[in-house]
Amino acid sequence: MQDGSGAYRTTGSTCLHPLSELLGIPLDQVNFVACQLSALCAAFWFRLYLSPGETSPAVRHAFATIFGIYFVIFCFGWYSVHLFVLVLMCYGIMVTASISNIHRYSFFVAMGYLTICHISRIYIFHYGILTTDFSGPLMIVTQKITTLAFQVHDGLGRRAEDLSSEQHRLAVKAKPSFLEYVSYLLNFMSVIAGPCNNFKDYVAFIEGRHTHMKLLEVNWKEKGFHSLPEPSPTGAVMHKLCVTLVSLLLFLTLTKTFPVTSLVDDWFVHEANFLTRLCYLYIVMQASKPKYYFAWTLADAVNNAAGFGFSGVDKNGNFSWDLLSNLNIWKIETATSFKMYVENWNIQTATWLKRVCYERVPWYPTVLTFILSALWHGVYPGYYFTFLTGILVTLAARTVRKNYRHYFLSSKALKAVYDIVTWAVTQLAVSYTVAPFVMLAVEPTISLYKSMYFYLHIISLLIILFLPIKPQAHNQRWPQTLNSLNKKMD
């Protein structure tokens, strides 16, 4: 956004303003990319010169935190105070609250503070900064605060037999020190763009136990290794940087060629026929993806470059570095169900929603998870259009799949037809559902949906109301929650 003089406004550093003017890109976006590229360089240095074998965990925690604080201040200036205030408030809760309430207090304070910041920035102060500038790091810190609080509660406040296998594995048995706490929340690898990760994994990485711990989890001897190897992240980092570069090129070309504002043009709303609108909507939504592919893949590469993100050995005996990956592009673009698409988009956020909401609430887990996701993203009306529509589409897709999928499994030909049809339906349904998320405001959203005759809303409602619904426990997707069904929000 520009001020009256035509200069790009930002609360962060202005030293890159000449580069911003040269490229014609908002200064806050230039600062973001500069910080992530600097973080990538710092990550290589961190892994090579502050390795766990040569450096104490306290020093690694300290450097990770100092770098993170510097990048936050460089990017966001005075606004970084919000991050620091929230971190300090929630550490106070971590230290003083009872174990039985630590997760509740942390959750409501973190989500409440995030929501107040969303409201004040958009509807009260009108800071004039892009949405991602304000909310991005605060949203990531909120995820981490609540994740850690629930895991401390699981480790210190619940019986082992009441936990699912995953909750037991991630449970934290001792409250973190202040240095561990701020390092986990503000480290330079993830403070700018994430992703969220587990406290035990992060501490194991700092202490040098991360890769060996993951190798032991998959029983490395069965994979052909007779001693614990030292996997190198270099190949994974190079691959992800290539994806990042391609995503950036697509963003600079496709996104400008097919802007989301074209969905409310007179041609689209009044002249194009329904099939043309449907196809053009898909193209515009495809063009809006590369910026997410760019930011998330680069963030993943930064963590890998520091030596964090090793997930074990795959079925072919290759080392995997996808523990922190936020998306699987191939599975997204070939998804044949709404569920498959959602599971491979913003993976770490979906995992966070599962662990703090879906697994723990006793009623309407799907609905409450979508509502929490909308609240976490912000207060723009478009978010709520998307997530409320997503509830309808998810329930309808689940009903259709349960009623008809088995008819197409008798032969490869029928299965191929089923996959092609469900792929097309899924991609168009996702485009329809997420359009308000990108458009943000009420008026363009209503204009778009009116031009599309609210077709997906109507079809989804008809399916839910009139197709026979076979009983399906919500725990089928994540069976481990059965063990804790009667211990929700304990």
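That was protein one. Protein two is written in the same sequence-then-structure order:
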Amino acid sequence: MRISIDKDVCIGAGQCALTAPAVFTQDDDGFSELLPGREDGAGDPLVREAARACPVGAVTVHDG
């Protein structure tokens, strides 16, 4: 699994960080980013739910 965040779409709602705090955080400007070393989701079962929770669809989970 690979996770990507479209920084041009992200509005900083923080739903991903609230849903999967072991994978996502927010930068100093409030926009979502992945925690270091978590680009693959680290097997966190909440990653897909965090992507679904994003109100603007900025978080994408890619299989494989």
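The helical segments are 15-19, 47-53. Keep this in mind for the problem set.
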